[in-house]
Amino acid sequence: MKTQIRPLRAAILTGLFSAVIAMPAPLIAAPNPCAPKVNPCAAKNPCAAKNPCAANPCAAGNRIDPTLVTRPKGTKPYKGNHKELAKEGEKLWNSAKLSGPGTISCASCHTGGAMFQSSFAKPYPHQVQMAVDNAGMKSITLEEMVQFCMVKPMQTKPFAWDSRELAALTAYAADVQKTFKPGKATANPCVANPCAAKNPCGAKNPCAAR
Ligand code: HEC
User: Fold this and answer.
1) In ligand 1, which atom is closest to the CA atom of 146?
2) With DSSP H G I counted as helix, E B as strand and the rest as coil, what are the percentages for the chain, rounded to 5?
């Protein structure tokens, strides 16, 4: 942080200095705060580079094929002991290796109930906004939702429909659902750019043209 502020401050000081030198005597007392060199808002928006939502995997418009995430007729889920599967599922939930880029896990988005909307508290199948928006699916099961998040936010392939991994992750997600309280649901942090509000050069730039 500091290292980023320093060059800006140095630029302002240099700007002030040269502005002062260039000014006719009567103006020295009040250098024009809107002169390009002095205007701290002329410098690059410090938030631009750091916007974590620049490559927003949640953004709408990125349609996915509903047949990729709909259990095919005649296929059966892997059957096993719920507790054992959930234990394995918890490891998968926390593993970034599952994702296409290898950098995000289910936990990156969903820890503490994050990104889940109030629909998550309802019994499955139910409507999930993202599945409506991106695949036109009006209703979805929990395991299909696991597949959906594999394809969309995790940017990879869905699991085989009879795989132990899909059963494990679904079992763990069911346990997560049991402890979920809709009131705690946090909004999708990618919807509102967290930098927008804090951009010191945004709304109140006194130098902006009127
Ligand atoms: C980049 C963020 C992100 C990642 C990573 C992610 N999800 Fe999601 N997940 C979302 C969003 C956004 C929603 C949709 C919320 C909505 O529209 O209601 C969602 C919804 C869900 C839902 C359905 C909630 C409901 O209302 O029924 C489940 C279950 C789920 N995710 C499981 C997973 C699993 C399992 C993984 C890992 C394989 C995962 N998610 C990875 C962002 C993510």
Assistant:
1) 35
2) 45, 0, 55
Q: pTM of this prediction? A: 0.69
* Residue 140: DSSP 8-state: B
pLDDT in tens, 154-178: 999 999 999 999 999 999 999 999 9
Half-sphere exposure of 12 (CA within 13 A, CB side): 12
Q: Where are the domains of the chain?
A: 2-43, 66-184
Nearest residue (CA) to ligand 1, atom 1: 153
How many Å lie between the centroid of ligand 1 and the Cα of residue 80? 24
Return the CATH number of the domain spanning residue range 66-184. Answer: 1.10.760.10
Identify which of 94, 99, 110 to mutate to test ligand 1's pocket (most ligand atoms within 8 A of the CB). 110
- Distance of CA 117 to CAs 14, 57, 188, Å? 50, 17, 9
